């Protein structure tokens, strides 16, 4: 991981406060703020506070760290308002776009941004700096322990849906979970959990794929409230809760609590689909437990819990040599180039079919798998006989391509045409297609 450069922080003057009118109660004040993150990047956020004055007793505070992607501060605004109504000064901010994308992530850089936001909160006269901490959701829970290890300014950590395995393992596990929920069986789940993930890593489009959060949790000394929804379908919750609790115990942290929340999903929201949806609504009493824990973070102040059995996260090894982007690109270009030659082999219509079926199958497969990657395997299209219809069509095309390859090969061996170079290239492309299709699961039921 690239270590981010910590720079001096400058907090700009806040914009005028305005009452939160989304609930019609006016019980929360939202103040727009800018602050300087790592590398001098200006970050934009909102500080939410109760409408009632703090009085002589200053308030606790949290900085909220969102999950993967950059949805903007509005995504966590319902949680932020809930915490503000519980008397907690809360900062939500837009994640940086300079130096962060789904293809280019650096958790250390995000940790420095979080610490910049925390310093801004601690400088406020209504905040008790000894009760200021971080709240991290999913990817934000990768970032939170890094920040806690870098600064004693972090007085506590609250996490939601933290992951205890590597991002690659968690992603592969979630692919399997969502595909099973969609009724998908056969080769596609294995393709998504294996070769697709490894190829993305080899191509350099899955940054931080091998990040191991356990060593960072072993060094956390601050109080920790680690929370998972009982219906979390994303974070490998059973294994993650055991790994993180074990890491804290090995590190000697006796001030940690694991909380399992019944009836809620990955982000502790209400669910109408057994945890596989992301409804915006918060459950009743959201923030009650967290507010009490911040007031008294001693172990035992929050009921703990545990998960039952769940499928283990698959081990993701290094990409094989034939899964490297260079080899993959060369093989695909050679295959497609040979297939589009479209040679005329007298008396053999299969040659024309092979020249069409090969490129269509290759392009269709890559496009469909890219679509699954973009939707985290949550949008498969219609499913028939335990397979997405698109995948069934691609498998049928792959079988037809193999059949055409066999027909071309048989014809060339039997008739031995005088001009054999172009038909030979066509046959070579068809033969190269067969192991490629096996590798990607197209010829596996």
What does this structure look like?
41% of the residues lie in helices and 14% in strands. The chain folds into 2 domains: 18-166 and 211-295, Alpha/Beta hydrolase fold, catalytic domain (Rossmann fold), CATH 3.40.50.1820; 321-439, no CATH class. The strands form 2 sheets. Strands 1-2-3-5-4-6-7-8-9 form a 9-stranded mixed sheet, with helices on both faces. Strands 10-11 form a two-stranded antiparallel sheet. It is elongated, with a radius of gyration of 27 Å. By secondary structure, it is of the alpha/beta class.
Shape: elongated
| Parts with pLDDT < 50 across at least 5 consecutive residues | 1-25
- Biggest sheet, in brief? 9 strands, mixed
What is the share of helical residues? 40-55%
Distance between the amino and carboxyl termini: 39 Å
Strand fraction band?
Answer: 5-15%
The radius of gyration over CA amounts to 27 Å
Indicate the CATH class of the largest domain: Alpha Beta
Q: Class by helix and strand content?
A: alpha/beta
Count of helical regions:
12
Keywords: Membrane, Signal, Transmembrane, Transmembrane helix
Signal peptide: 1-19
GO molecular function, one term: serine-type peptidase activity
Pfam family, one: Peptidase_S9
Task: List key phrases describing it.
2 domains; transmembrane helix; 41% helix; 445 residues; Rossmann fold; two-stranded antiparallel sheet; nine-stranded mixed sheet; 14% strand; AB_hydrolase_Est10; 11 strands
């Amino acid at each position: 991981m690239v270590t981010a450069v910590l720079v001096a922080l400058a907090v700009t003057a806040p914009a005028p406060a305005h009452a939160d009118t989304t609930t019609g109660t006016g019980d929360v004040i939202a103040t727009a703020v800018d602050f300087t993150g790592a590398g001098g990047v200006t970050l934009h956020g909102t500080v939410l506070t109760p409408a009632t004055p703090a009085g002589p007793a200053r308030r606790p505070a949290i900085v909220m760290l969102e999950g993967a992607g950059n949805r903007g501060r509005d995504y966590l605004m319902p949680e932020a308002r809930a915490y503000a109504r519980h008397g907690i000064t809360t900062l939500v901010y837009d994640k940086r776009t300079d130096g962060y994308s789904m293809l280019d992530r650096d958790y250390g850089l995000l940790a420095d941004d979080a610490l910049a936001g925390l310093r801004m909160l601690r400088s406020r006269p209504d905040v008790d700096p000894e009760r200021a901490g971080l709240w991290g959701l999913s990817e934000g829970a990768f970032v939170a322990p890094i920040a806690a290890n870098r600064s004693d300014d972090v007085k506590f950590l609250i996490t939601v849906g933290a992951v205890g395995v590597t991002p690659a393992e968690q992603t592969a596990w979630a692919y399997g979970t969502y595909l099973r929920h969609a009724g998908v069986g056969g080769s596609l789940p294995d393709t998504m959990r294996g070769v697709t993930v490894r190829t993305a890593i080899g191509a350099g489009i899955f940054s931080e794929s091998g990040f191991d959060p356990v060593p960072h949790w072993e060094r956390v000394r601050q109080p920790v409230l680690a929370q998972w929804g009982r219906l979390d379908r994303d974070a490998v919750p059973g294994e993650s809760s055991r790994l993180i609790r074990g890491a804290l115990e090995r590190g000697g942290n006796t001030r940690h609590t694991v909380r399992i929340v019944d009836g809620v999903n990955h982000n502790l929201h209400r669910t109408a689909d057994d945890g596989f949806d992301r409804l915006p609504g918060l459950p009743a009493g959201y923030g009650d437990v967290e507010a009490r824990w911040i007031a008294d973070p001693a172990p035992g102040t929050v009921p703990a819990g545990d998960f039952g059995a769940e499928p283990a996260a698959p081990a993701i090894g290094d990409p094989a040599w034939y899964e490297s982007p260079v080899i993959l690109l060369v093989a695909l270009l050679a295959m497609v180039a040979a297939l589009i030659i479209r040679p005329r082999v007298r008396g053999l219509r299969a040659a024309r079919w092979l020249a069409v079926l090969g490129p269509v199958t290759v392009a269709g497969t890559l496009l469909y798998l890219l679509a699954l990657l973009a939707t985290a395997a949550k949008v498969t299209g219609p499913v028939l006989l335990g397979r997405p219809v698109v995948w069934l069509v691609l498998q049928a095309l792959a079988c037809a391509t193999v059949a055409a390859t066999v027909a071309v090969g048989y014809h060339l061996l039997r008739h031995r045409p005088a001009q054999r170079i172009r038909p030979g290239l066509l046959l070579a492309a068809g033969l190269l297609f067969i192991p490629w299709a096996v590798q990607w699961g197209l010829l596996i039921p």
